[in-house]
Amino acid sequence: MGTESDFQEPLDIAERWLGEGRQVAIATVVETWGSAPRPVGSHLVIDAEGNFEGSVSGGCVEGAVISEAADVIGSGKARLLEFGVADETAWRVGLSCGGRISVYVERLG
């Protein structure tokens, strides 16, 4: 996983990172279908240096979400990411087992 204790909630970590002056984005699972491993409402927080905590997919799409979060932090423009078997990115990011997941990424602070 990321760099902090597994016992801290991602939202608590985001609040602390913001207090430290870090630029932070949060990714939230907003929709799932099929075999998505994390429920709606799951969070992944990412800072501008690429540090992260939490999970939106149990490892299937985290790399792609972290990459997009860097762009969201830089631009300030939120975006909705969609991954699934019907999407050509499914094989690249590891959702080949089936299912779909939608993740909303936005900058905090």
TrEMBL record:
Pfam families: XdhC_CoxI
Domain XdhC- CoxI residues, every copy: 17-84
InterPro entries membership: MoCofactor_Util/Proc, XdhC_CoxI
Protein name as catalogued: XdhC family protein
Taxonomic lineage from the root: Bacteria, Pseudomonadati, Pseudomonadota, Alphaproteobacteria, Hyphomicrobiales
